[in-house]
Design goal:
mainly alpha, 6 helices, about 55% helix
Amino acid sequence: MPLRSDVSIYPEAFQTEDPMSFFVNVLCVLLMYGSAYLANTGAMLFGKWIPGKTGMRVFIIDNGRNYSDGFRIFGDGKSWNGLIGGGIFSGILFTLAHRLWGSNGAGAPEAPFVDPLLLANPNDWFWLFEGDYGSSFAAFTMGFILGVSCMLGDLSGSFIKRRRGLKREGDESSEAPLLDTIPFAIAIFLTSFILFNDQIITHPNLVEEILFLLLITPVIHRSFNIIGYKFGLKEVPY
């Protein structure tokens, strides 16, 4: 598949002529960014499930320290294992998406399964290796960066919640739909437009769909948390 680095190659891509095409584009955006959204799932796997099964040490980010207000900075639920693991998980999923959808449309966007590396080429800054697997490493790098951005956004939300005196578990609920979701979604999209502004994931015709996805992120996030709760990956369904 020819890899390119100029969004203007596809100026008419993702045009919306009716509500159906808009929602197809939303699905496109969800699939392209879904790997980064699922960094939270990777954080649960690396920060809780794997250590629980293997006895691996968990490195808490705030190391048990309190902020000046007397509350923990982030809490025990935020670990370096989860932060890095979330990035790795996202990178793996980005690579899978690239390998699965890389030939769709013979190099042109074919909704909704669009290769997130469609417009990338070896001249891009995140294309670190040459050879047959250069594009896969590039996909992993993009996914890892966006996954870590997701986790940093999640950390910012956790920090604000702690300042409000909300605990993660226990008798006092930490349920805060907006603080649990909007910060990590904003972090993902900001990072995308800052670092990958010439890639298909930030195509100008997808801006409205990205904003729509941002608005419905709380619903998506709650759905995945309920699934994680049912599988024992989370102690609370939010």
